[in-house]
Design brief:
The protein is an alpha/beta fold. The protein has 4 helices and 7 strands, in the order αββαββββαβα.
Length: 157
Amino acid sequence: MIDHVKEATGAVEREEVTPQGQIALHVTPANWHVVAEHLRRCPRCNFGMFNWLSAVDMEDQGFEVIVHLYSASSLQAVNIKTMVPRDGGSVRTLTDLWRGASFHERECWEMFDIGFDGHPHLVKLLLAEPFVGHPLRKEFLLMTREAKEWPGAKEPE
C-alpha cells in the first residue's frame, strides 16, 4: 500500500511502520490534502473512515499534525503526518473528504492555533468566546501551576 500511495501521489516524503503494523506517511503541508484525497477516493486504498485528527507540540520544530484513517475493506489503519510552523502554520481542511473532520479541526485550531484553510465553520468549540490563548501549546501557563507547585519534570518559561 505504501508503494502504491508514493507512486500515485509522488507526495510522500518518508514512511514508517510501527511494530503493530500501523503505517505513518510523512508529507509536506502542501501535500497533506493530496495524500488524504488519494487515500479516500482510490478504490484500491478505500480509507473511508476518519478516526481522529490532532497535533503534537514539538516546540522549536513546530507542530506535528496527524490524521488517523481506517479502511474497513482492507482492515488497515494509516496516519498522515505533517509539520507546520508555530506561528501561522496551516494545512488544507479535510472536511471536503470526511465531514467528521470538522470537529477535530476546530478543536485543533482552538487548542493549538493551527489553521485549516477552507474550513467551512472555523469557530470556537470548547472554550468561552472571551478566552485568550491556546491551552495545548507547551508555553501556555496553567493557572493551577501558579497557585500550587507543579511536580512535573519540565516547566514552561
